[in-house]
Specification:
This protein is an all-alpha fold. It has one domain: Ferritin, core subunit, four-helix bundle (Ferritin), CATH 1.20.1260.10. The protein has 5 helices and no strands. Helix 3 packs antiparallel against helix 4. Bound molecules: magnesium ion and fe (iii) ion. Fe (iii) ion (FE) binds next to helix 2, helix 4 and helix 5. Fe (iii) ion binds next to helix 2, helix 4 and helix 5.
């Protein structure tokens, strides 16, 4: 019996595709930020690391989808108006871009964490036990990223203010 013979199974496959699209969105947002960052090298380095992790997350999702007969060339990411992408564009106008992006990045990781917790629950419910380790790896990377971002909110705020006081590039 194929997984999409049940309604819950096909909803699970939709969830996997949505996660793949969400990761595509994440790559765009982070890619745009690392190109602009100049005064926050630790953040830039961590974002570059998470970009690499995110590509791996997409590969794990593709493998799971392929295990259910989805041809990877058929995994087209719907153009999603996910909050973060619009936010990252809007923030480039702001004098406090670094802060707004810090808040948005933290929020984006929350969205991803919730999405993977939901997908793991679905995988268990529909019996896709082979997928669970890979989904947990994705979840663990999102949790680690969010924890790191949380530690950066206060130091980033202080650096932003002191760079601004010194008349240096503070907003990116
Ligand atoms: Mg991710
Ligand atoms: Fe993430």
């Amino acid at each position: 019996m194929a997984i999409n013979d049940t309604e819950s199974g096909s909803l699970y496959l939709t969830g996997l595709r949505n996660a793949h699209a969400l990761e595509g969105e994440a790559l765009q947002i982070m890619g745009r930020q690392v190109e602009r960052l100049t005064s926050y090298p630790e953040l830039e380095a961590r974002l570059r690391q998470h970009i690499d992790e995110t590509k791996g997350q997409q590969q794990r999702l593709v493998k799971i989808l392929e295990s259910h007969g989805t041809d990877s060339s058929a995994i087209k990411d719907a153009v999603q108006a996910v909050m973060g992408n619009m936010a990252a564009i809007g923030h480039s106008m702001a004098g406090d871009e670094i802060l707004k992006n810090s808040f948005a990045n933290y929020a984006f990781e929350s969205f991803e964490i919730a999405a993977y917790k939901s997908l793991i629950t679905m995988a268990e419910r529909v019996g896709d036990h082979a997928a669970i380790d890979a989904l947990r790896q994705n979840l663990d990377e999102e949790v680690a990223m969010q924890e790191w971002l949380e530690t950066q909110i206060e130091p980033t705020t202080l650096r932003f203010l002191s760079l601004a006081d010194q008349g240096q590039q503070a907003k990116i």
